[in-house]
Design a protein that fits this description.
- The complex is a heterodimer.
- Chain A has one domain: Pyruvate-ferredoxin oxidoreductase, PFOR, domain III (Pyruvate-ferredoxin Oxidoreductase, domain 3, 3-Layer(aba) Sandwich), CATH 3.40.920.10.
- Helices cover about 40% and strands about 15% of the residues of chain A.
- Chain A is built from 7 helices and 6 strands.
- A 6-stranded mixed β-sheet of chain A has the order 2-3-1-4-5-6.
- The longest helix of chain A is centred in the C-terminal third of the chain and has 30 residues.
- The C terminus of chain A is likely disordered.
- By secondary structure, chain B is of the alpha/beta class.
- Chain B has 2 domains: about 200 residues, Rossmann fold (3-Layer(aba) Sandwich), CATH 3.40.50.970; about 120 residues, 3-Layer(aba) Sandwich (Rossmann fold), CATH 3.40.50.920.
- Chain B is built from 15 helices and 16 strands.
- In chain B, strands 4-3-5-6-8-7-14 form a 7-stranded mixed β-sheet, with helices on both faces. In chain B, strands 11-13-12-15-16 form a 5-stranded mixed β-sheet, with helices on both faces. Chain B has a two-stranded parallel ribbon with strand order 1-10.
- The longest helix of chain B has 20 residues.
- The N terminus of chain B is likely disordered.
- The chains are: A alpha/beta, B alpha/beta.
Chain lengths: ~240, ~400
């Protein structure tokens, strides 16, 4: 009996400087660490702050063949409300191509007032819209809004269980500390210069971890977890 | 004064700030038989971008010289080549001033008998086309990595592989990589095939830009301590030459420079030999790549023929059709030159419908396939679907075309 194909095609949209591309690398790498399959493609124009950024991540428990941007996602991650309210996006309206009954996770502490047409189309698609106060979480727990992307990554883990929290944490370490470096601050062999830098990175990792943990818990508390209701998705 | 130690012409390891006892990485590697490298050595899986896959390929390719001029999306791979130069896996490396210079210089390097690598993308390729189209006739084995990019207006940096159509009739060996894995494997195979004495031709490995170069995928690599055998410049159809004292002119010389029947005759036989050499390379690619094509679901009524990224999209379409209980065949064309005529004919001999998805406006693969199958196959061949300007082809598009096709051709 072959295992049922689980497939999540995620389109992430945000604005330059938020770490959208970083988030996609972290999620994708985390899935691979956990033994799953993943691929990602970033898409951006000139690299500058506040310019639209998209990144596409495919996640599966089976081999992934496709490449390139995801035209018909079943998951959308909106990293900033202005993607919707100011149209800071390569994809307009932001839900274009969303599969029926897809999930939209929006970084906003309160619901966004959609236009009548937008609301109608979202209703027709039976889109499930979740609001995550990611920036607030980042500010509160990591003391910087730069950790917003960590909250978004955590929510992916909370909702899909892929990557699992441990693999996600390992992926974040990979990204910020680099492969092969064991995280143990007290190692005597490190000279003082490296130690200083290391301590900083260790602090960064801890702050990121706090945000991810909180976000994973938030997703579970809100009842967003797909673990009990695996959505069978096609490309 | 050329070749003075410390001059920009011939820099030593010391000039580059290396310690006196520095040993280049390449000298620590062991030469291995190509067939052993391609088929027998153990492989480790890495989750890397296409640019990094190109780097790992170059690391094992025993390259003597690399010359390139940056252009998106090629730049990242050649930046990686810079690291290889620093580590001593590429012996010489410099950035040329623009593409005509790049491709002229790399031709001279190859003519001198060393393994020569360059890389470019769409518009850069088009700028250097004059020099590139002179490579095959000069019988210069060169490996060029081509990260496909839009060349037509409106300007874009996204992958659209129309530029490949401009190389079809040059006499260059052409491979089309589907993914990061191919972009690791194909350059190594292309180098060995291009340097065979009965081939002696340049080879271009194209890959669809960002979707492979800037995206991560699983790549199985052989141990880095093994490298390909070096190029033997004397073992080629046109022997290597001392560029400072060339034994003959490459152009048609004075008495026959003017057009007359002798010059036409010479040109014809020379060109016929170039294109015959392209065909002779097929046997090497069959060995190195395990075939010029990959066929999935042979004997199916419906077939998709594709190359590059379109193959990946087609694989997913085949999988989804399979879930619905419908068998769809797929031919992945690995080598565009030599074109796998007999392999394609054999694969689709019982097919009723053939779809050819492409990432370009011209439909060059469709034209190639039609020219091969005309009069030799009963299938109806559909000229599409196609996406332009660097857009990804959604799998849904292939599925829709298949559904329509079944209605049209019973």
């Amino acid at each position: 009996m072959t295992e049922e194909v689980k497939r999540y095609n995620i389109r992430m949209a945000g604005i330059g400087g938020q770490g959208v591309v970083t988030a996609s690398h972290i999620v994708s790498n985390g899935v691979v660490i956990s033994g799953g399959f993943s691929s990602l493609v970033p898409f951006f124009g000139s690299e500058k702050r506040n310019a639209p950024v998209e990144s596409y991540v495919r996640i599966s428990n089976q081999t992934i063949y496709e490449i390139g941007e995801i035209i018909f996602p079943n998951v959308l991650l909106i990293f900033h409300p202005s993607v919707i309210t100011l149209g800071k996006s390569y994809t307009m309206p932001f839900y274009t191509g969303l599969k029926q009954n897809g999930i939209i996770l929006i970084n906003s502490k309160k619901p966004i007032p959609f236009t009548r047409d937008e609301q109608r189309e979202l209703d027709e698609k039976e889109a499930r819209i979740y609001y995550l106060p990611a920036t607030e979480m980042a500010n509160e727990l990591a003391k910087t809004d730069l950790a917003t992307n960590m909250a978004m990554c955590g929510a992916i883990s909370g909702i899909f269980g892929l990557p699992d929290p441990a693999s996600l944490a390992a992926s974040v370490k990979d990204r910020f500390v680099g492969k092969g470096i064991v995280v143990s601050g007290g190692t005597a062999a490190l000279d003082s210069a490296i130690e200083k830098k290391f301590a900083k990175k260790q602090k960064l990792l801890e702050a990121n971890q706090k945000v991810m943990d909180a976000s994973i818990q938030y997703a579970i508390d809100q009842g967003w977890s797909e673990a009990e209701k695996p959505a069978k998705a096609t490309a | 004064m050329a070749n003075v130690v410390g001059s920009s012409v011939c820099r030593t390891a010391e000039d580059e700030g290396k310690p006196a006892d520095w040993v280049p990485g390449g000298e620590k590697q062991t030469v291995v038989d190509p067939m052993k490298m391609f088929h027998e050595l153990p492989r480790e899986m890495q989750f890397i971008t296409g640019s990094e896959a190109a780097r790992e390929s170059m690391r094992r390719a025993n390259i003597d010289i690399a010359i390139a001029y940056p252009i998106t999306p090629q730049s990242e791979s050649m930046q990686q080549a810079g690291y290889l130069y620093d580590e001593g896996f590429i012996k010489e490396y410099y950035r040329a001033e623009e593409e005509i210079g790049t491709f002229s210089a790399i031709s001279g390097a190859s003519r001198a008998g060393v393994r020569s690598l360059t890389a470019t993308s769409g518009p850069g390729l088009m700028r250097g086309m004059e020099a590139i189209s002179s490579w095959p006739g000069a019988r210069t084995p060169i490996i060029m990595l081509n990260m496909c990019r839009v060349i037509n207006t409106p300007l874009a940096i996204q992958p659209d592989n129309i530029e490949m159509s401009f190389m079809l009739n040059t006499g260059i060996l052409m491979l089309h990589a589907e993914n990061q894995q191919d972009f690791y494997d194909y350059p190594l195979a292309a180098i060995m095939a291009s340097e065979q004495v009965d081939v002696t031709l340049p080879a271009v490995v194209s890959v669809d830009g960002f979707f492979c170069t800037h995206a991560r995928g699983p790549v199985k690599v052989t141990p880095a301590e093994y490298k390909l055998p070096p190029r033997d410049g004397w073992r080629s159809a046109v022997p290597a030459m001392d560029n400072e004292n060339p034994p003959a002119r490459i152009s048609r010389d004075a008495p026959i420079q003017k057009s007359n029947f002798i010059s036409y005759h010479m040109h014809a036989s020379w060109q016929q030999e170039v294109f015959a050499a392209v065909e002779r390379s097929a046997k090497y690619f069959r060995d190195y790549l395990g075939g010029l094509v990959e066929v999935i679901n042979p004997g199916a009524d419906d077939f998709i023929i594709a190359s590059g990224c379109a193959v990946s999209q087609a694989r997913e379409a085949v999988r989804q059709e399979g879930e619905q209980g419908r068998t769809v065949g797929l031919v992945k064309v690995k080598t565009i030159r030599p074109f796998p005529v007999e392999e394609i004919l054999d694969a689709v001999k019982d097919a009723k419908r053939i779809l050819i998805p492409e990432f370009n406006q011209a439909g060059w693969l469709h034209k190639e396939v039609c020219s091969v199958l005309y009069g030799r196959c009963d299938a109806v061949i559909k000229d599409g679907p196609r996406v332009f300007g660097g857009m990804t082809m959604p799998t849904e598009m292939i599925l829709e075309w298949l559904a329509e096709f079944r209605k049209e051709v019973k």
